[in-house]
Every structure is written in structure tokens, then in C-alpha cells.
Specification:
82% of the residues lie in helices and 0% in strands. By secondary structure, it is mostly helical.
Length: 110
């Protein structure tokens, strides 16, 4: 029973993440929605599945799959965000510390 509730909560977070990807207007907001909610949602789904399974080997596999997702999704989002930023695909009007650092490096002698 508890495992089913945890899986349902994870599925709801994953659904909210998908809605955020469709609804948000710019890349960075979409990426934030995708990584935060879907990572937590998938972790909850894997925990709920592990609670439902009776075989220890299967439960461990579900938990390891959840841990792999927790590790890799934020890293992938960071790489996508950096690539988007470097190709100037964002419409954000903010302080760009990365561009300032590149200009200082370009202007440095040597």
C-alpha cells in the first residue's frame, strides 16, 4: 500500500515535469522543470517499486536504477544548459559571468 502511494506521487511529479517542459517559454525554465521534478519523480517511483517487490535482488536493481538517474540527469542538464548558453540560445537578460570570464581570458596576454 505504501509503495503504491510512493509510486503514484513519483508519477505525479513526472507528469508535472512533462507539463512544465511543454508550458515554459524558454530553454532554461524547461530544463529546470525537467531535471528537478523528473529526478525526484523517478526516485520516488524506484523507491515505491522497491517497496512493492518481494525479491531483494529486484528491489536492489530498482534502487540502483533510481540512483543512476539521480546522478546522471542533473549532469546532463548542466551540459545542455552550458551548450545552450554558449550558443546564445537563451533570451535571459542577466549578468553573464561566463562571457565576462571569456573576455578576460581572451584579452589576457599570452
Amino acid at each position: 500500500m505504501i509503495g503504491s502511494i510512493v509510486v503514484l506521487a513519483g508519477a505525479a511529479l513526472t507528469l508535472l515535469s512533462a507539463i512544465g517542459v511543454v508550458r515554459f517559454p524558454e530553454v532554461m525554465a524547461r530544463m529546470h522543470s525537467l531535471t528537478k521534478a523528473s529526478t525526484l519523480g523517478y526516485a520516488l517511483v524506484s523507491i515505491g517499486v522497491a517497496l512493492q517487490l518481494s525479491n531483494t535482488n529486484d528491489a536492489t536493481t530498482a534502487l540502483l536504477a533510481g540512483a543512476l538517474q539521480i546522478v546522471t540527469l542533473p549532469l546532463a542538464a548542466n551540459l545542455i544548459g552550458r551548450a545552450t548558453h554558449l550558443t546564445e540560445g537563451t533570451r535571459i537578460e542577466a549578468i553573464d559571468e561566463l562571457a565576462e570570464a571569456r573576455e578576460r581570458q581572451r584579452d589576457a596576454p599570452g
